[in-house]
# Entry
Amino acid sequence: MLGRFISFLGTTRAIFFGILLGALIGFLVGPSAEALKPVGTIFISLLKLVVIPLVFVSIVLGVYQTGTLARLGTIGVRTSVYYLSTTFLAVALGMVLVTIARPGAGVQLESPGFQPEVEAIDSLLGFLTRLVPDNIFTAFAEMNILGIILFAIAVGVSLLFTGDRGKPLVLVLTSLNDVFLTLTRGIIRVAPIGVIGLLAPLIGTFGFSILAPFWKFVLVVLGGLLLHAVVVLPFIFKLFSNRPLFGYVGSVRRALLTAFATASSSATLPVTLESARGGGIKDETSGFVLPLGATVNMDGTALYEGVVAIFIAQSLGLDLTVGQQFTIFLTATLASIGAPGIPSAGLVTILLVLQAVGLPAVGIGILFAIDRPLDMCRTTVNVWGDLVGCAVVEGKIKN
Ligand code: ASP
# Structure
C-alpha cells in the first residue's frame, strides 16, 4: 500500500512529503522520536553501500569514454577551472556578507571542555599522502574516496591505452554501472521513509529553538547560500550552457532533496548520478564530474568555513588584517576540498582554517550542536554546484 501511495505521489514529492512528515513527527513527539533513528541509519547505509562501487565504476568509464587523452585533458581542465572558480566566489561572498553584517559582535562563544576530533585533518601533508593509497582494498574498506578516485582515473587512462584487450573489462564495468544505477533507483523508492527516520529524531531532540541565539549568524549563512545557489550558480549556468535552467532544476530536484535530507554529498551521489542522466547529461561527463565534485567541490561548505572563521574573530573582538583575511580565503577553499562529503565534515576541516590564522577553536562545540540544519542547506548547495558543473562542462548543446 505504501508503495502504491509513493507511486501515486511521485517519488520526488514523496521525499518532500517525508521531510515534512519527519519534521512534524519530531516536533510533536519530542525526544522519543529517537526511536525512528534506525530507519534513517539504514537508509544512509543503503546509499553508502552503492556509493563506493559507483564512484569507481563511473570514473573509470567516464575517463575511458572521453576516448582520447586530449579530450580527457579538456574535460579535466574545464572541470577544475569551474570547481576552483565557483568555490572562490562562494568563499568571497560569505566573507563579504559576514563582514558587513557582523553577526559575531557581542556574542559569547565559550565552550569549555569540548575537544573536537582533529585526527582526520591533522595536516595538509597527511591529506596529500593519503591521496595515493598503497593498498586499493584498504582504500575501498576505509572509504578513502580521494584515493579511489585517483586509482580509478589511473585505470581509466590505462584502459585508453590497452585497446581491444581492454574491451571485455569495459563491457563488465558498463553493465555493473547499469546494475548499480538500477539498485539506486530501488533505494530512491524507499527514500521517503528513510528521510522520516532522519528528520524526526533530529527535530525531536534539538527542536528549531536551538538556532535562536545565533539568528544573525544563521541568517548570514543561509542568505549567502541562497545567493550563491539562486544567483551566482544560475548566472554561470546561463553563461556556459543553453539548457533551460528551470527544466534542469526540475530534472535534478530529487538529488537536491536527498542532499538536504542526508546532509551528505557522498551518500547523495548515487541519486545525483541518476538525476544528471534524467537531466540529459551524458554519462561520460557526469561519470567524471560528479564523483569528483562530491568530494572536492563544496561551494556551500567553503562559504560556511569563511563565515565561521570571521564570525569567531568578531566574537573575540579581533580585527583581522588583510593578510589574515586572504589566508582565510585560501584555506577555506582548501578545507572545503579536503572535507569528505559526510555530515558535519565542514566543521571538522574548519580547524585547518582557524589554525592557519591563529584563531582559537572557541565556539566549535556550540556550532556542532546547531550544525545539522545548516549542514543540510550547505550540502544542497554543494550538490547543486556539482550538477551545474556538469552542464557547464558539457557546454552549449546543439539543438
Ligand atoms: N555535509 C557536507 C557534504 O557532505 C560537508 C559539510 O559541509 O559538512 O557535502
